[in-house]
Every structure is written in structure tokens, then in C-alpha cells.
Design a protein that fits this description.
Layout lengths: L4 E7 L7 H11 L4 E7 L5 H6 L6 E6 L4 H7 L2 E2 L1 H6 L4 E5 L2 E5 L2 H12 L8 E5 L3 H12 L4 E6 L2 H11 L3 E5 L3 H5 L4 E4 L23 E4 L8 H8 L3 E3 L2 H16 L7 H15 L1
Parallel strand pairs: 1-2, 1-3, 4-6, 7-8, 7-10, 8-9, 10-11, 11-12
Antiparallel strand pairs: 3-5, 5-6
Helix pairs in contact: 1-10, 5-6, 5-10
């Protein structure tokens, strides 16, 4: 009988995570003897959990909030993306060494390649928010070679800090400048929690955007945020946040279980049904 390979997702809280549904679907689809489980790890227990990973019986796992940044300090090796972003979302073992990577930027890029393939030729991008999620988006945009990235945030100093971290091509701007910047932005990415379950009010008036603009919201609950609804009503190309969640899961599954899975319409449908069921 084949040995059961075990993977996990850790966070605090963790009950909301849909990663087990994604990886469980792939395990079943590929007939792999494996498991993927949620583990609630309080911040005070994180270091002990990471240090014990080589003896835990797990092949690796995912890391979600609030542990992504702290995990950088606890692993033996970081991949280039995790080092640049300053956060780890994927763990694996290599000869006893604990390795940390970040697949969020790659997941964002892979999803846009499918649903808005012209994004890589954008002359300018407007990024809303300078929190943890923004780092992965900035890394994806700079890696794609987009030379003019406008970063707006409620706290200007935070936007300045990230623009300095990621270097040439990223300019920090004040939140109230959003609409002025929008008129010459080909790509807009919302990385804030505005729109999450109906929270907050978006500072962007989509009427200011060029007719060829693509609007992305990394929030996926709801799938159609007020920003995406307004953009779609105006006839703009829109991309929701669920695809990023699905595509960022691909590299980890491949590392742990040795098979590169596919993001399919059927998988997306399963996750959409789960999201809608949780809201009903």
C-alpha cells in the first residue's frame, strides 16, 4: 500500500480556509494517497510548529494569516519570491531543510494570463492598498516588466515604504489622488479589504478609467465586489480574486504530491458553490 502523504494549512483562525477543498479535489482527481488538513496555530506556537516540521510526518503545507511574515524568519531557506515579498505561504522539506516560498504573485499572474492576457502589455498599473497582499501584486507587476506602477494607500507613509522596498517604477500616491491617476491607468488592482462582504467604500470612480482598462479585485467574497460590478456595467474587463486563490495552490500541490494539477471550471464551480453556501 502506498504511503499516505500529509500536507496542511496553518493560520489563526483557520476554519474559513478553502484550501482543503481545493487540494482535496486534486488528491481525489489524481488518485493520490494523501491528506490536506487545517491546523489552527496560535502565534506563540508558530516557531515550535515550524521547527518540528522535519519530524512531523508532513511533506509540507501552506501558511496563511497571521503567520506569513513571521514564517520568513523561521525557515532555513527562502525562494526568491518569498524573499522579495517578505512573506511565506508555502512550506516544503528539502533534505531536512525547511524551505519557504511564496506563490501568491505567480498565482495572480497565472490567473490574469488566462482571463486578461493583455495585462502584461499594460503601460501603467494602479494598485489600491499597501498591506500584506499588495506586496505579492507589486512583485508580480514588476516581474512582468510594467514600468509605471502607481500605489495608493490611506496611509501615505505605508505606500512610500513599499515603493522604496520594490524600487524603480513604483510611485507612492495619496488616497485622494486615486481618480486623477485612474484616467491614465490600463490596469487597476484592488488589494484592500474594501468590498469584502460589503465593507467600506471604494475611492475609485470607474468612469475615470480608459475604455481598455482591466479591473482586478483580489477579494473573492463576494465574487463580484461593488468595484467589479461598476466596472462590468461600464463594459470594462474584470477579473475576480478566486482565480488567484486557485492558481497559487498549484505549485505547492506539485511540490508535495509530485503532480502538477490543473485549475478547471469544475474546481472553480465547487469553490463558488461553497462560497455561496457559506453566505446563504
Amino acid at each position: 500500500m502506498a504511503e499516505t502523504m500529509k500536507a496542511f494549512v496553518i493560520g489563526h483562525p483557520i476554519a474559513h480556509s478553502r484550501s482543503p477543498l481545493i487540494h482535496g479535489y486534486w488528491l481525489e482527481s489524481h488518485g493520490i494517497s494523501g491528506t490536506y488538513e487545517r491546523i489552527d496555530i496560535a502565534p506563540d506556537d508558530l516557531e515550535r510548529f515550524i521547527r518540528n516540521l522535519p519530524k512531523s510526518g508532513f511533506v509540507g503545507g501552506n501558511v496563511t494569516i497571521p503567520h506569513k511574515e513571521e514564517t520568513c524568519r523561521l525557515v532555513d531557506r527562502l525562494d526568491e519570491a518569498a524573499r522579495a515579498i517578505g512573506a511565506v505561504n508555502t512550506l516544503w522539506l528539502d533534505g531536512g531543510a525547511i524551505c519557504g516560498g511564496n506563490t501568491d504573485a505567480a498565482g495572480f499572474a497565472a490567473d490574469l494570463d488566462v482571463h486578461a492576457s493583455s495585462w502584461r502589455s499594460a503601460k501603467s498599473a494602479l494598485v489600491l492598498g499597501a498591506g500584506g497582499a499588495s506586496r505579492a501584486i507589486l512583485h508580480a507587476l514588476t516581474t512582468a516588466g510594467i514600468a509605471d506602477i502607481r500605489l495608493v494607500n490611506r496611509t501615505f507613509a505605508r505606500a512610500e515604504e513599499l515603493s522604496e522596498r520594490f524600487g524603480t517604477g513604483i510611485q507612492a500616491h495619496h488616497w485622494q489622488d486615486t481618480n486623477d491617476l485612474a484616467s491614465t491607468s490600463d490596469l487597476v488592482v484592488n488589494t484592500t479589504s474594501v468590498g469584502l462582504n460589503g465593507q467600506g467604500e471604494m475611492p475609485l470612480d470607474v468612469a475615470q478609467l480608459p475604455a481598455n482598462a482591466t479591473v482586478v479585485d483580489i477579494v473573492y467574497t463576494p465574487l463580484q465586489t461593488p468595484l467589479l460590478a461598476a466596472a462590468a456595467k461600464r463594459g470594462l474587463k474584470t477579473v475576480d480574486g478566486l482565480g488567484m486563490l486557485l492558481h497559487q495552490a498549484v505549485p505547492g500541490f506539485e511540490r508535495w504530491f509530485g503532480v502538477r494539477p490543473q485549475v478547471t471550471d469544475r474546481l472553480r464551480g465547487i469553490i463558488v458553490a461553497d462560497i455561496e453556501g457559506a453566505r446563504s
